[in-house]
Design brief:
By secondary structure, this protein is of the alpha/beta class. It contains eight helices and seven strands. The structure holds S-adenosylmethionine.
Length: about 220
């Protein structure tokens, strides 16, 4: 009896997650937008991943004066972690389509006194991004591109924003999530090489249980 109930609950949760992950491809992202905007501030705000972000930043060996963009930043954990580093004197922008999450990120920025180094704004990445070309030294995008109907369009848009010798760091899902995300390392290798700029190196860094990070360094 108990196993039957657990099976049904597992099936329902799995089905909901699958619909959420594939919403962008099949349902125009309405469901995903509402879920993120409604529960995002509480769900992302309660995570404690400071050490994961810190380890990732250490592995990237940034100089400290970069202009950085975080696409799909949620409540801004990554930009706030970077901006709080004592030796960072560049600038970080975080964008997300959820007004409620951007509001939470702005409140946190004020609270931590980091507004000189970081800014957040509401942007839907299905539109052209509101930045000039060659604006950023490093662009992160974790957990966004996988759900877009034409992910290579966003990749090309990010390449437009990236300065020469820039770095793109993007999430690579593992396990069943990689199947629902439908973008694997081969997809990235092919499309990163097709961006029309010199690709110097692709590196895979461990990050979360669910994700590694693909780091593409360009010439
Ligand atoms: C899986 S979460 C990842 C959050 C964060 N990057 C991280 O790795 O912890 C995906 C984020 O992308 C945002 N997002 C999804 N689709 C988007 C879109 N079309 N435009 C802008 N942001 C989007 C969501 O609101 C959410 O904050």
């Amino acid at each position: 009896m108990i196993w039957g109930i657990l099976g049904i609950v597992g099936f329902l949760i799995g089905g909901f997650l699958f619909i959420l992950m594939t919403d962008g491809r099949y349902f125009g992202k309405q469901l995903m937008y509402r879920v993120y905007n409604r529960i995002g501030p509480a769900a992302f705000g309660s995570r404690s991943e400071a050490r994961d972000w810190q380890n990732l930043l250490t592995s990237l060996h940034l100089r400290g004066d970069e202009k950085i963009l975080d696409v799909g930043t949620a409540v801004g954990d990554l930009p706030l972690t970077i901006a709080a580093q004592a030796d960072f004197h560049g600038h970080v922008s975080g964008i997300d389509w959820s007004p409620r999450m951007m509001e939470a990120a702005n409140v946190e920025t004020e609270k931590r006194g980091l507004s000189a180094r970081v800014d957040f704004r509401v942007v839907d990445v299905r539109q052209p991004l509101p930045f000039d070309g060659n604006s950023f030294d490093v662009i992160f995008y974790f957990g966004v591109i996988e759900t877009l109907p034409n992910p290579q369009v966003l990749l090309e848009e990010l390449s437009r924003l990236l300065k020469p010798y820039g770095i793109l760091a993007l999430s690579l899902y593992k396990g069943w999530l990689s199947w629902s995300a439908a973008l694997d390392l081969k997809w990235y290798q092919t499309h990163l090489a097709d961006l029309g700029r010199p690709l110097q190196e692709i590196q895979i860094l461990p990050f979360r249980n669910s994700q590694d990070v693909v780091v593409a360094r360009f010439g």
